Amino acid sequence: MKLLIISLALCACNMAVPIEPSTQPLLELLSSSGFSELKEALVKHNMTNIINATEPMTIFAPSNEAFKNLKQNPWTKNMTHGMMEKLLGRLVVLRRKLLPADVRNEMIVDTASNEKLRLNVYPKVRTVNGIMVVMEPNVQSQQVIIYRVNRFPMSPPPGRDIFEMLNRRKERFSTLVRAIEVANLKETLKTGGPFTLFAPNNDAFKALPEAKLAKLMESPAELKSILLGHVINGTYFLGALLDSPELPALTGGLNKIAVNGMNITVNETKVLTREGMITENGAIHVIDRVLLPSNTTAPLPV
Length: 302
Description:
This protein is of the alpha+beta class and 302 residues long. 29% of the residues lie in helices and 24% in strands. The chain has 12 helices and 15 strands. It has helices at 26-32, 36-44, 48-51, 64-72, 81-89, 162-167, 170-182, 186-191, 202-206, 210-217, 220-228, 238-241; strands spanning 57-62, 92-94, 107-110, 116-121, 126-128, 131-140, 144-149, 195-200, 231-233, 246-248, 254-260, 263-266, 269-270, 277-279, 282-287. It has a 7-stranded mixed beta sheet with strand order 2-1-7-6-5-4-3. It has a 4-stranded mixed beta sheet with strand order 9-8-15-14. The protein has a 4-stranded antiparallel beta sheet with strand order 10-11-12-13, with no helix packed on it. Helix 1 (26-32) packs antiparallel against helix 2. The longest helix has 13 residues, at 170-182.
């Protein structure tokens, strides 16, 4: 699942116009607040559990432009009714009106699609499943609060933890998967976290001298130390990397993040921003080089 989670459309001119809390029905509230496409989609796909809900509700509402992009994208323009039900349900947290002050980093909330959303709070941005959220101004009625998003949040299928996501993409990560198993980190990346993994693809491992790679595969302790240098405690989506010059690895060392326009690097290694993935226990950023330590550092307990 590709995850492009940079969204820079945060300027005030694109924000929803705030209104005073009112008793407007949901569809009227969406229409009067500039979310006409979401209103039409809820009606078209008969989302009565959302339209007629009488309990508190939080909606992460895609802009009309986001719906336009959805319809024009060759991968999503022919979505079935069932797929749209899932997509729309994922936008709605039932029985909870989450005010900005209620949102905590790494908060997990259940949605109307029976999926989970991960909320993250970074110094300058907040995200929902990696998509930047315009938290204020927001739109409110007495029971509903609506936050604007400029993309549709995606959600990993059940059971897609960090290791399983890599394991299902062996054409790109077979060497990394084997290294994780040799280093006895499989269970950590399946059940631990949340983590952020800078994942070297197969080309990254091919760039290592053949003898060095062979030696590493025969040295589980050294391999484990190197791999843990690619793992960060916590979930850091691309929006967070834009504002995080240093991220501590599980080895205790620091990974230095640099941003130049739309280009992001970690320890001077390119992050392939269009290939990132969201998982049940964190995020994966694909890189094209193995991060080798300049000196040996003892890994932290995991």
